[in-house]
């Protein structure tokens, strides 16, 4: 800022008040030598070009993408442009430095918009950063400005996927709600305590009127609904609608979980959507012709394919993921390369030591009931249970596996995408668990509800594998491995907000605490200086 201080007395029109605003903007002359070789992008004749105002508008609208305008000193830049437009004069060298500052702000904005602000490895151990796609913010920015298409180029720099654009629209809706003083203040005080452990339809409750107002604000209840004195009628239907898009059983009964979701203010939803926009920037979705995406908090798998330039959802099914307490499913992406029909289950050493061996010592009959067998290092199969074999298993001299069959923990099919965590998709002999609303029951691998539908999608490029042949291989009882002709990307994603194409927005509990972790990382990072 010193370069402007030296010229205070040269300001025309006595614009001292405007110049005080200029003093608030931090700009270092140390970068001038490095930037001076660049021709001016934003100023001409000491005054801002139209594109400079466009840039400032874009930076001040950063919150629409869950970014922070303060990271780019958008307000400070606008104040300086206003001062210059109003008559403040600066020497050419200072205009060069100011031009370079606007460029740095826009470069940072484009990098944040395209790649994200946080290195994903800060919040996900072992996360593999996606391969670079060649996006160069500096070159991209200069080309866009010189071509006179800055706004269009910024839109194109955002992640090119329908998930992102849908979330961005949801962000606009909830920002509008959070900024409306009449509607936002409905969350200024909590709902009254429930009359018991849960509130069922037909009961009196002092919070019925406040609840109805919140549901109207959220769009789950028509604005013309009469305010009730009891919890019944239309308000119950509104609660069911609310529950349906908040990861809850839509039964109209308000218990602890429903009450907790009803207390989340629009401002907190804005923050939640922003966190998920940030995560989408480094989640490699829809970068291939066909792809499988598992959204862990939603407990749902979707299969996608591009068709005529648009993305089509080809399959959707429930899944069971790793337990939140101790065996969480990791977040990563890999290529599926094999399918195993009638697979063996090679019991991981950690499970064998902690669970299988103790149970076999307590209940020896469990060994034959479940179809277990030992395997030696040289491949020999030992089908008898003995203390010697159990001791050898614990010493690592043997391993234990479960033969194909109706009790096999993997069910009758396994989808393999080699990864460091040994995570895969598979069926299950306990399909009744899919009926539960929260489905984090596994040791980390992902159980799928509709394995045949998934296999048909995976084998689309191998038409000789029709449904009849798939089912036959699944029940054959002989383990068979099929290599895919085309590797198929699998993304294990984590999004606690999903925006549908029809405008509906769904929120899901942060079961692994990843939203909280990312939120903390962003807060610690704080506003950045240019």
* Major beta sheet, strand line-up: 5-6-7-16-14-13-8-17
**Percent range for β-strand residues:** 15-25%
Separate helix tally: 20
Count of individual domains = 3
Contiguous low-pLDDT stretches (5 residues minimum) are: 1-37
Counting DSSP E segments of at least 2 residues, the number of strands comes to 19
Sheet with most strands: 8 strands, mixed, barrel
Shape descriptor: globular
What is the share of helical residues?
25-40%
- How many whole angstroms does the radius of gyration measure? 29 Å
What is the end-to-end distance? 12 Å
Structural class: alpha+beta
Average the pLDDT over all residues and give the rounded result: 90
Describe this structure in words.
The chain is of the alpha+beta class. The chain is built from 20 helices and 19 strands. It has an 8-stranded mixed beta barrel with strand order 5-6-7-16-14-13-8-17. It has a 4-stranded antiparallel β-sheet with strand order 9-12-10-11. A hairpin with a 4-residue loop joins strand 5 and strand 6. The two termini are 12 Å apart.
Fold blueprint:
Blueprint: H1 2-5, H2 16-23, H3 32-35, E1 43-44, E2 47-48, H4 50-60, H5 74-85, H6 92-115, H7 137-146, H8 150-157, H9 162-179, H10 181-184, E3 203-204, H11 208-218, E4 230-231, H12 234-244, H13 256-262, H14 266-281, E5 290-295, E6 300-307, E7 310-322, E8 332-341, E9 345-346, H15 349-362, H16 366-369, E10 372-376, E11 381-382, H17 387-394, E12 398-402, E13 413-416, E14 425-426, E15 440-442, E16 446-448, H18 451-458, H19 467-475, E17 480-493, E18 497-499, E19 505-507, H20 514-525
Parallel strand pairs: 5-17, 7-15, 14-16
Antiparallel strand pairs: 1-2, 3-4, 5-6, 6-7, 7-16, 8-13, 8-17, 9-12, 10-11, 10-12, 13-14, 18-19
Helix pairs in contact: 2-5, 4-5, 4-6, 7-8, 9-14, 11-12, 15-17
């Amino acid at each position: 800022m010193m370069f402007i201080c030296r010229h205070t007395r040269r300001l025309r029109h006595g614009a001292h008040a405007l110049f005080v605003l200029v003093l608030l903007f931090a700009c270092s002359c140390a970068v001038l030598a490095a930037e001076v070789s660049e021709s001016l992008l934003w100023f001409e004749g000491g005054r801002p070009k139209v594109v400079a105002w466009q840039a400032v508008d874009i930076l001040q609208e950063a919150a629409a993408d869950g970014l922070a305008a303060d990271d780019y000193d958008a307000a400070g830049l606008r104040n300086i442009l206003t001062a210059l437009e109003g008559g403040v004069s600066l020497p050419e060298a200072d205009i060069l430095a100011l031009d370079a500052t606007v460029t740095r702000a826009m470069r940072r904005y484009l990098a944040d918009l395209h790649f994200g602000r946080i290195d994903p490895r800060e919040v996900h151990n072992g996360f593999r950063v996606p391969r670079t796609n060649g996006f160069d913010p500096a070159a991209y920015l200069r080309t866009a400005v010189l071509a006179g298409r800055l706004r269009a180029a910024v839109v194109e720099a955002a992640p090119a996927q329908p998930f992102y654009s849908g979330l961005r629209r949801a962000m606009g809706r909830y920002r509008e709600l959070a900024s409306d003083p009449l509607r936002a203040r409905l969350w200024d005080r909590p709902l009254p305590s429930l009359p018991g452990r849960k509130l069922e339809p037909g009961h009196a409750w002092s919070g019925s009127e406040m609840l109805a107002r919140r549901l109207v604000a959220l769009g789950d209840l028509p604005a013309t609904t009469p305010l009730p004195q009891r919890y019944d009628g239309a308000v119950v239907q509104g609660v069911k609608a609310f529950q349906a898009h908040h990861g809850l059983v839509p039964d109209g009964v308000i218990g602890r979980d429903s009450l907790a979701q009803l207390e989340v203010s629009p401002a907190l939803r804005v923050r939640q959507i922003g966190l998920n926009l940030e995560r989408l920037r480094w989640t490699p979705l829809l970068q291939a012709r066909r792809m499988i995406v598992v959204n862990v908090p939603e407990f749902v798998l979707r299969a996608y394919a591009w068709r005529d330039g648009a993305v089509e959802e080809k399959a959707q099914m429930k899944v069971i993921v790793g337990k939140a307490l101790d065996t969480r499913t990791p977040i990563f992406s890999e290529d599926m390369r094999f399918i195993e029909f009638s697979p063996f289950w090679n019991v991981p050493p950690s499970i064998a030591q902690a669970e299988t061996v103790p149970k076999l010592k307590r209940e020896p009959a469990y060994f034959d009931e479940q179809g277990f067998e030992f395997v030696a290092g040289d491949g020999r199969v030992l089908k008898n249970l003995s203390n010697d074999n159990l001791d050898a298993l614990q010493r690592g001299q043997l391993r234990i596996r479960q033969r194909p069959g109706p009790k096999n923990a993997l069910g009758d099919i396994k989808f393999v995408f080699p990864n460091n965590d040994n995570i895969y998709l598979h069926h299950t002999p306990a399909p009744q668990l899919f009926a539960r609303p929260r489905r984090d029951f596994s040791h980390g691998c992902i159980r799928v509800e509709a394995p045949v539908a998934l296999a048909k999608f995976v084998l689309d490029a191998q038409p000789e594998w029709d449904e009849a042949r798939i089912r036959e291989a699944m029940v054959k009882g002989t383990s068979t491995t099929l290599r895919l002709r085309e590797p198929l990307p699998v993304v294990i994603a984590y999004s606690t907000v999903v925006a549908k194409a029809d405008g509906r927005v769904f929120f899901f509990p942060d079961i692994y605490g990843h939203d909280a972790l990312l939120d903390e990382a962003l807060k610690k990072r704080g506003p950045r200086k240019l």
